[in-house]
Design a protein that fits this description.
Blueprint lengths: L2 H4 L6 H10 L7 E8 L2 E10 L2 E9 L5 E10 L3
Antiparallel strand pairs: 1-2, 2-3, 3-4
Length: about 80
Amino acid sequence: MNDQEIRSDWIDERTSRFLFQEGCASSDECFYELSTNEAGVRGRFSYRINMTEGEYSFEVGASGQPKVLSESSKDSAS
């Protein structure tokens, strides 16, 4: 993923800045999973960079506005 793809208004500013600065070196460090249904799109964005990992679950309805359903971030044990 390039930097433009991982910066988004629905990702909190601190995490967005972290992802922009550290970047995702490979596809298994940052990825999206998306599914569609009659209401719109549901998705999950996960990242694991250095010793930090996190995940956002979200949906995008007919209006096109993303809604964060859950978010988590933690430092991984070494």
